[in-house]
Amino acid sequence: MRIESAEVIVTSPGRNFVTLRLTTEDGVTGLGDATLNGRELAVQSYLDDHVVPLILGGDASRIEDTWQYLYRGAYWRRGPVTMAAIAAVDTALWDIKAKSAGMPLYQLLGGASRSGAMAYGHASGRDVPELLDSVRKHLELGYRAIRVQSGIPGLDSVYGVAASGAEGGERYDYEPARRATVGGRLRPTVETWDTRAYLRHVPSVFEAVRAEFGPELPLLHDGHHRMTPIQAAQLGKALEPYDLFWLEDATPAEDQAALRLIRQHTTTPLAIGEVFNSVYDYTTLLSERLIDYVRSAVTHTGGVTAMKKLLDLADVHGVKSGMHGPTDISPVGMAAALHLDLAIHNFGIQEYMQHSERTLEVFRTSFRFEDGLLHPSDTPGLGVELDTEAARHFPYEPAYLPVNRLRDGTMHDW
Length: 414
Ligand code: GCO
Ligand code: MG
Known about the structure:
alpha/beta; binds magnesium ion; globular; binds D-gluconic acid; 13 helices
């Protein structure tokens, strides 16, 4: 089954997406998500200029070999751009194989291990009353687990908190990247951060949420890499009374060993890895059981093949999945995650920020969100198609994630 054609489709229905479509000589198509928020065109070029020419005419059935060819053959290994490009090819080949077999992808991955994948949504508020309303709204939407992010007194804006109300109800769900201009030039927006103010405030937020919604509701929180290890340990400890499902990205985790310090001080479960792009980013974290959930997405970690291997390694060490699922993971990437979520043994939870209606004009999905659970559907393949004509109506618009500076102007993590 030869790969006859490949198209890299960049479209911006509500936010930028990069999608690879492969078509075989007998007309079977497969899709792969290659979206890298704020750096989309780098992946488009990596695919168009350095990958597509090497796979055209190749055997679409050789998924593992194609993965190894693109990973080892490039000489330059890993990195978000490379692994997003490899992910798109790999996912598209799995889509083709499952369609050709006449079955949904999860059946090829071992069949269903559960009835559905528990999802969590993003509640946020600039203050506690707004946050509590957002939690209520997400419960009404059917979520059974909720990420809680809050404004911080003294800080104008905090990443992850919907700019609702004053900004006309703009939902954070839609898109964390922004188009902003400074002096007429496109620039990332700049947010000001104060970790001590954050650490003083967050426990009171969870005190209020628990008081309102009780002890049962699984609550998650994202630290967005902003704390030092000892600050993360301090927060993890302070949040223990509120029994979080997880504290995510508590500290920048290129320094995997830093998680040892956090682990020594707190039993709050830890989730890490949405910015990782290979299993090698996790080796210490997994072998020493320094985390409880793997946050990587299929889209950023080399595809279904690589993600399955990573999650199997995690399972050996008692670590579960918690795949990244914001709106900058396209419906194609989300569908790929859901097939893995349904099939693997060590499923934990699936992040699910619902894509906008505009996005769904371009991506025709078949996965379902019912009663707090996601199901990829039994459509053969991934179960997503891309409407090329509709995609043309939404040209690429450069947009960047915000950058984060301390009050004195020092660049900070986020
Ligand atoms: C999450 C992430 C998002 C990211 C965004 C970056 O947990 O969903 O932290 O908030 O910031 O996906 O592209
Ligand atoms: Mg996150």
